[in-house]
Amino acid sequence: MSGHSSFEPNNAFLKWFEQRLPILGLLKASFVDYPTPRNLNYWWTFGGILSFMLAVQIVTGIVLVMHYTPHVDHAFNSVEMLMRDVNYGWLLRYLHANGASMFFVAVYIHMFRGLYYGSYKAPREILWILGVIIYLLMMATGFLGYTLPWGQMSYWGATVITNFFSAFPLVGEPLVTWLWGGYAIGNPTLQRFFSLHYLLPFVIAGVVVLHVWALHVSGQNNPAGVEPKTPKDTVPFTPYATVKDAFFMVVFCLLYAWFVFYIPNYLGHADNYIPANPGVTPAHIVPEWYYLPFYAILRAIPNKLLGVLALFGSIIILAFLPWLDTSRVKSARYRPLYRIFFWVFVVVCLGLGWLGSKPAEGGYVTAARVLTFWYFFHFIVLLPVLGFVEKTKPLPNSISESVLKGKKVVASLLVALLVGVAAIAGGHSSASAAEGAPQPPRQKWTFSGPFGTFDRAQLQRGFKVYREVCQACHSLSLVALRNLAEPGGPEFSRAQAEAVAAEYKVKDGPNDQGEMFERDGRLADRFPPTFANEQAARAANGGAYPPDLSVIAKARTYERGFPWFLIDIVSQYQENGPDYIVALLEGYEDPPAGFQLPEGSNYNKYFPGHAIGMPQPLQDGQIEYADGTPATLHNYAKDVTAFLMWTAEPHMEARKRIGFQVMIFLIVLAGLMYFTKKKVWHEVEKPREIATGQDPKATSM
Amino acid sequence: MTTVSSAEPTRRDFLYIATGAVAAIGGAATLVPLIAQMNPDASTIAAGAPVEIDLAPIADGQMIKVFWRSKPIFIFHRSKKDIDEARAVNVASLPDPQPDQARVKEGHDQWLIVIGICTHLGCIPLARQGAYDGWFCPCHGSVYDTSGRIRQGPAPTNLVIPPYAFTSDTKIQIG
Ligand code: FES
Fold first, then answer.
1. Contact (CB<8Å) A669/B9
2. What's the rounded Cα separation, in Å, for the pair A629 and A457?
3. Contacts of B3 in chain A (CB under 8 A)
4. How many whole angstroms separate alpha carbon A608 and alpha carbon A558?
5. Which pLDDT score, from 0 to 100, does residue A565 have?
6. How confident is residue B175, by pLDDT bands cut at 50, 70 and 90?
7. What are the Cα distances from residue A276, in Å, to A158, A185, A190, A289, B120?
8. Which residues of B are catalytic?
9. N or C: at which end does chain B have fewer Cβ atoms within 10 angstroms?
10. Under CATH, which number does the domain B45-174 receive?
11. Does the pLDDT of residue B69 top 70, yes or no?
12. How far is A349 from chain B (nearest CA, A)?
């Protein structure tokens, strides 16, 4: 955005316009002619990817707002209605929810790249600090956004995080009350969080403009860490950087699409499919994965105020990095010691992230303290000292020279990352077996995997089980009767669905006399509630509240543990909820000797804590199947679970089908982009062959 | 650089065009969900199902308003006088010529069912007002007669007849 425009339009109107508002010249200077170092590697494409993700989040977010209701009574349901009823609503929400994670994946890579190549050093200090501000704004925005679905994690995450501020003496309590607009998190909180969640992305966009401006003043850093000296050291932004960025953006979209279409809830929490309940805290409060390292730091410190200060300090310290690092050499390529400590630091951050997801007890806390110490030690001691004691390697004279030597330092960072994760987590592989509940056995499901579909007959049987047994206590309030006849589900005929609907009594009114009345259900109705309200349900069930089953298959899970949670990303194992439900329905046994079963509860092997209020609901032979399927408990459990998976994710078949099309498209586009990029860069990468006329692929210029 | 094979630029151009075309297709496909999400959602469409109305309580000369697909529907139990008025006019002289018989179901001439939305710009006309005993729209002064036909004012067409059928002598289903 600096420098003089060389843009002189031929068109008379453009010339007239340009004299009055030289915006085209500005754009051309910034995004076409702008010289970029010719030796940038793919780690430099993440700036572009981040801009893209910001745009995706803003566009999908604006769309979600069209269907969302920021009110404690409606927020959860409005999100569910978006997922069920709005055209492509499920896609837009999954794009937004996973988009936030992808945004953070990209920003972390972008930041670690900056750390590795010393991109924060003079003259880029302001550029770096603007980046830290963007990162802080992103964290705030992500947090605010996660409260909006108003599930259990939304509510309790918001409670825990806003309580950070209560740590400050004197101002703490009034400050938190002010943030909440009440005596606890409530409707005022939700509404202000919604407002701010809508605002902050535009603030981010504004700071991004400053960030890019500062970048274009100082120019990009590069893997060699020496500034461009001659025109031979740079290439114009367009087409060289543009096409390279575009290619890698498509590759990144492949990862994004994998999450959106195949494992859309992997990065979320099952608890967030349970509506917010101010009276019950989930067993594990865990923030979104991108906050985990900081959460681990918070919990590592035994003092409340110091913990909060350490958490904020661990982020703020990044802003001082340009002065903490005393070395004059930028790139880690020429800093043998720093390079080692950089990787140690990466592993420390990953380790903190993993510890943040674990309960704060025993060895986990000790480990978190060690790593927290190292985190600060890295910045406060190591970096300043290293600058004085490290013997750096000789720098190349110019970028061109470094290119000709051409060492591929940018080796497989991803592999290294994975090794880092493995190394950290490896020693603790048995951690998942905690909680005292055995792992539910894996079931075979027709709907698993990238091409999975529901078995219609199974869903129809499952619906029979629901109607004849579960329905006596559990409602299905988010599901509409018409859904029974829609494609991708049990696919009853319309007439069958209408007959089912007519068997339900629905409360309607008031009529002309001002009275509520009951009428037969219609396809447009949702399943009527089993009980009028929670109190009535509790009264009828000995104090226990039978949960609504609409999204239960996504609201239940079990801990997979290392390394399974990583393998699940690739294998697309998403059936934690269904496997758990089957295990639960089959898990009733006599309590082991010495187990104190509370009055009115039943022993279940798979239920956390084992004492479950619900008596064994299903037994062999209880329900008659018309299609000859054996009437066994196992079949009932599987069928009703498959049915509940469908009620939780009614558009799963469409999701996987569209996902496959998107994947194929992206692979084709990535291939084309790759060859286009190769063609465009050909002249730069093989300059000597071209110059001497030996290049067989020479092209006319 | 004069040693240029003529085939090469063509191949390169083809690659660029193919890449650009595929990217453009992807961009266009992305617009589909972004646009489609603004159409009525499944619950709105389901709620727009036909409704049944009992005509028995509606007295001679009375007009009631019901809602179907969020639109007001006027159900007008016309008196003999109303029908005669509507049939006495010279159809050809009307702004939107239509005989009264074409606007009611045969054998149910006393029942006029119209969508109660002014065809000018969407206001709801007031019943039994204006010079023709039908409706008068307060927004810009359109006047409708007892057949719901436009007689005066800026509205271009007669009040619209919704799809409906008599399920019995005293019941209709709208939609
Ligand atoms: S809207 Fe009725 S006259 Fe204009």
1. no
2. 10
3. 693, 698
4. 10
5. 87
6. confident
7. 11, 11, 12, 20, 48
8. 140
9. N
10. 2.102.10.10
11. yes
12. 36
For B39, which residue in chain A has the nearest alpha carbon? A87
In CATH terms, is domain A34-432 a member of 1.25.40.10? no
Per-residue confidence (pLDDT) for residue A120, from 0 to 100: 96
Among residues A602, A631, A607, A604, the alpha carbon closest in space to that of A468 is found at: A631
| Ligand 1 probe mutation, B121, B124, B151, most atoms within 8 A of CB | B121
| Contact yes or no for B85/B146 (Cβ under 8 A) | yes
Q: Summarize pLDDT for B8-47 with one digit per residue, the tens.
A: 668 888 999 999 999 999 999 999 999 999 999 999 999 9
CB-based contacts of A110, cutoff 8 Å, min separation 6: A46, A47, A50, A131
- Determine the distance separating the centroid of ligand 1 and the alpha carbon of B156, expressed in angstroms: 10
Residue A88 makes CB contacts below 8 A (sequence gap 6+) with: B32, B33, B36, B37
Residue whose Cα lies nearest atom 1 of ligand 1: it is B121
Give the integer Cα–Cα distance in Å for A625 and A631: 6
Q: What is the mean pLDDT of chain B?
A: 92
- pLDDT on residue A405: 62
Q: Is B124 in the pocket of ligand 1 (CB under 6 A)?
A: no
- The residue assigned the tokens 């499920």 is A90
Q: Per-domain residue ranges for chain A?
A: 1-33, 34-432, 456-655
Give the tokens for residue A65: 């707002």
- Contact criterion met (CB < 8 Å) for A88 and B36: yes
Ligand 1 proximity of B142 Cβ (cutoff 6 Å)? yes
CA distances to A28, A680, B3, B149 from A701, in Å: 21, 12, 11, 72
- Asked if the interface predicted TM-score (ipTM) of this complex is over 0.95, the answer is no
CB contact at 8 A, A98 and A260: yes
Inter-chain CB proximity A697 and B46 less than 8 Å = no
Cα–Cα nearest to A285, from A161, A180, A179, A189: A161
Q: Is B123 in the pocket of ligand 1 (CB under 6 A)?
A: yes
Considering only CB atoms, B3 lies closest to which of A81, A523, A698, namely A698
Query: Residue B170's closest CA among B56, B68, B92, B61?
Result: B56
Residue A414's pLDDT is: 63
| CATH class held by domain A456-655 | mainly alpha
Whether B66 is in the pocket of ligand 1, judged by its Cβ within 6 Å, is no
CA of B150 to the centre of ligand 1 (A): 11
Cα(B147)–Cα(B103) distance, rounded to whole angstroms? 7
Q: Please tell me which of the candidates B3, B37, B42 has its beta carbon nearest to residue A63.
A: B37
- Interchain proximity A665–B26, CB inside 8 Å: yes
pLDDT of residue A692: 55
Is the CB of B121 within 6 Å of ligand 1? yes
Give per-10-residue mean pLDDT for chain A (701 aa): 62 92 91 92 95 97 97 97 97 97 96 96 96 97 97 95 92 94 95 97 98 94 92 91 95 97 95 94 90 94 94 96 95 95 96 91 93 97 95 90 61 58 44 60 94 96 96 95 96 96 92 90 93 90 91 93 87 94 95 88 92 92 92 96 97 97 97 94 71 49 38
A176 SS3 class: helix
B7 min Cα distance to partner chain A (Å): 10
Is pTM beyond 0.90 here? yes
Cα of B129 from ligand 1 centre, angstroms: 14
What tokens were used for A204? Answer: 């981010």
User: How far is it, in rounded angstroms, from Cα B64 to Cα B50?
Assistant: 18
Closest of A581, A552, A577 to residue A477, by C-alpha: A552
| Radius of gyration, alpha carbons of chain A | 29
Size of interface A-B (CB pairs under 8 A): 89
Q: A482: which chain B residues are within 8 Å (Cβ-Cβ)?
A: 42, 46
Whether A59 sits inside 8 A of B36 (CB atoms) is no
A358 close to A419: Cβ distance less than 8 angstroms: no
> Ligand 1: distance of its center to the CA of B96 in Å?
16
